[in-house]
């Protein structure tokens, strides 16, 4: 083929390409259609995260069960007592271990504000959290909000204090101290302290509080095994704060005398009673068994103003409650009732290694405090 022929051939092919534009064009493979978007569990975000495509366009990301961040709300009874700081620390410990969980810790300031806790749970439901971990202020008042959560497939783990209903059916699990056993331990120690005879005064905590009601009943039942002991139960309630507990205690002590021992079923009632007996000059003169620990109560036990404290493990409680919620979301089988442990501590045992860690844990490393 001479040069003239080659030129004519090139012109011919160029003309055909112009006439038949489909020839020589590479067919593009359509991009796969994204699957249905996973539920966005963020209470703060109104849109899903976007990632750039190969062509530079932004397409909605589709979170999967293994990559989506779970948002778990932990709702305590209150936020002022040291006990709840420890629960918070345990919840954050679980968050750090799980990696794909973000914990929100939010509760009423006072432990007697039922309506605030009800409203808070309803707000968390509306915000679309992955799960709610709840310590009910009232075993009846929080039933309806928990049912509302179940209706929109938000699992609820109950912790610390019970709720009317059945674990594994009405809510996922119940994670708590064996409160009845704690009350029994207190009663058995009181029998020992007073030598099995005398009058013993009990200050109750709050109506509707399932956990402390069990501690009170456990104590009462334990004392029944000692015929020489007379229980003084004026059916008076300490209320949610140390101040209300102190006021109630002072009123009881004004109208009641000749008793050998005192029992209180939680931290605030124990501290309020401690202040009251100090004011009456009775500290160290009557046997005193309390429940829960704080620095002030530990100092009083060192000074022999308190003979024994029944203590829980709130860090373990917060940790196991969050872990249970996360494992349930992942489809794993979880226990419907989880006992987080209870122990009785005295002046003689408070400095043992296991009890020292229980009474004075390093919360700062979990709470990010300096």
Could you characterize the architecture of this molecule?
With 370 residues, this protein is an alpha/beta fold. The chain folds into 2 domains: 70-177 and 313-339, Rossmann fold (3-Layer(aba) Sandwich); 179-311, Rossmann fold (3-Layer(aba) Sandwich), CATH 3.40.50.2300. It has 12 helices and 14 strands. It has helices at residues 3-19, 82-98, 114-126, 143-151, 179-193, 210-223, 242-255, 267-279, 295-302, 314-329, 353-359, 364-367; strands at residues 50-52, 58-60, 70-75, 101-105, 131-134, 156-159, 173-176, 198-202, 229-232, 261-263, 287-291, 308-311, 337-339, 343-346. The strands form 3 sheets. It has a 6-stranded parallel beta sheet with strand order 4-3-5-6-7-13, sandwiched between helices. Strands 9-8-10-11-12-14 form a 6-stranded mixed beta sheet, with helices on both faces. Helix 9 (295-302) links the parallel strand 11 (287-291) and strand 12 (308-311). Helix 2 runs parallel beside helix 10 and helix 5 (179-193) packs parallel to helix 6 (210-223). The N and C termini lie far apart (89 Å). 43% of the residues are buried.
What's the structural blueprint in terms of helices and strands?
Layout: H1 3-19, E1 50-52, E2 58-60, E3 70-75, H2 82-98, E4 101-105, H3 114-126, E5 131-134, H4 143-151, E6 156-159, E7 173-176, H5 179-193, E8 198-202, H6 210-223, E9 229-232, H7 242-255, E10 261-263, H8 267-279, E11 287-291, H9 295-302, E12 308-311, H10 314-329, E13 337-339, E14 343-346, H11 353-359, H12 364-367
Parallel strand pairs: 3-4, 3-5, 5-6, 6-7, 7-13, 8-9, 8-10, 10-11, 11-12
Antiparallel strand pairs: 1-2, 12-14
Helix pairs in contact: 2-10, 3-4, 5-6, 7-8
